[in-house]
Amino acid sequence: VGSILSGLAMQSQVMAYTAPSEIKTALNELSGMSRDAMERMRDVVWVIDSRKDKYENLIDRMRVFAEKNLVVKNITYHFTVNSIDGKKFIDPEKRQNIYLIFKEAIANILKHSDATQVNILFEQDKGHLRLVVQDNGTVSTQKPSDGLGMSNMAMRAKNMGGNLVTLFENGFMVELNLDLNKKA
User: Which H or E run contains 130?
Assistant: First the structure.
């Protein structure tokens, strides 16, 4: 499926170069949708891959996502990891939910913020896991959103037995707190 999507993305992009202007936009959108589907598919495969069941795998994936997406918008970032044993097992469901919360927080910055800096903190202390994603942007009132990103993040946190805090204070902040000893 991945190779089919890749071929579709490349063919539609190549066709867009020589296409009449009235269909060029549609072909570029098709290429973008194909690439988005490939990215989502990679996420699904990553989640079910039992070889990726350690904290280091989650941290690596988060770093790659931040690098790939923030740099494109000229947003610098600092990724700090404190007291997390990278070799330690992480429950696949928690790994998926933490990653998707992280991805949504970054996506919201890319869509809605004028930030130039993002600070990411991922830490563990006495059975508690904390993820903080904070930018230095100002409140954006120009792009109202009807998306479900914030509610999806809160639902994912709740499903893991954690909580999600969002606030605007010197930039926008998303904070996930999770008691690793508590059952969801």
Answer: strand 128-135
